[in-house]
């Protein structure tokens, strides 16, 4: 008796259901970030006599991180447009640029965290710093997972071309990547700018 593998769903309804499921995931992620923002807003004044954002944050570093992440969102948009025209090499090129911009963002964030920890302003120093590291670190973790996903998608585009399943996955990755930009704009506006003023 032979067991046949179940036939994979490839109808447009199946892809729409996956997209809907991914939107639901993004909404749950938005709730997580909303809770982290609320925690940060509650803890921002709880420095326990330690350093505050004004003495720790660098506007130039945060601005450079913002430029890198927003530029990566633009380059991902070009990758999405190239996928619609079936230009596999352009998709791979734009994904590579997006990856490098995202990697630069994560590198700057790690450098900022290490500098703060070396200065004695680690997450265990105060409630403010715990909330800061948790919020910004959670975003950085998401970007790192997005970078991993970009590598995986690049491999799929390279090996399988721009088939309907690959294009559908690329669309969902785009939703995730643009969501991270929106979350970062919130972090820049709520954490860094008020912390420096």
Structural commentary:
It is a single chain. The protein is an all-alpha fold. It has a domain at 27-37 and 74-196: Up-down Bundle (Four Helix Bundle (Hemerythrin (Met), subunit A)), CATH 1.20.120. It is built from six helices and no strands. The protein is elongated, with a radius of gyration of 20 Å. Mean pLDDT is 91; it is low at 1-9.
Topology:
Elements: H1 12-43, H2 53-56, H3 59-84, H4 88-118, H5 127-160, H6 164-196
Helix pairs in contact: 1-5, 1-6, 3-4, 3-6, 4-5, 5-6
Task: Work out the strand percent.
Answer: under 5%
Sequence stretches where pLDDT stays below 50 over 5 or more residues: 1-9
Largest sheet: none
Pairing-aware structural class of the strands and helices?
mainly alpha
Shape: elongated
Helix content: over 70%
Mean pLDDT: 91
Number of DSSP E strands: 0
**Radius of gyration, Cα only, in angstroms?**
20 Å
Distance between the termini: 73 Å
Order of helices and strands: HHHHHH
């Amino acid at each position: 008796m032979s067991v046949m593998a179940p036939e994979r769903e490839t109808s447009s309804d199946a892809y729409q259901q996956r997209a809907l499921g991914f939107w639901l995931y993004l909404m749950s992620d938005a709730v997580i970030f909303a809770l982290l923002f609320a925690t940060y807003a509650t803890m921002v004044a709880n420095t326990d006599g330690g350093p505050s954002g004004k003495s720790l944050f660098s506007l130039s570093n945060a601005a450079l991180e913002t430029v890198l992440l927003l530029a990566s969102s633009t380059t991902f948009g070009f990758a999405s447009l190239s996928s619609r025209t079936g230009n596999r090499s352009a998709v791979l090129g734009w994904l590579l640029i997006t990856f490098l911009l995202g990697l630069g963002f994560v590198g700057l964030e790690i450098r900022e965290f290490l500098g703060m920890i070396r200065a004695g302003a680690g997450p265990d120093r105060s409630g403010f710093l715990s909330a800061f590291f948790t919020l910004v670190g959670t975003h950085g973790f998401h970007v790192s997972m997005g970078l991993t996903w970009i590598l995986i998608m690049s491999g799929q585009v390279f090996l399988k071309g721009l088939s309907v399943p690959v294009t559908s996955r690329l669309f969902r990755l785009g939703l995730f990547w643009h969501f991270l930009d929106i979350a970062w704009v919130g972090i820049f506006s709520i954490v860094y700018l008020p912390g420096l003023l």
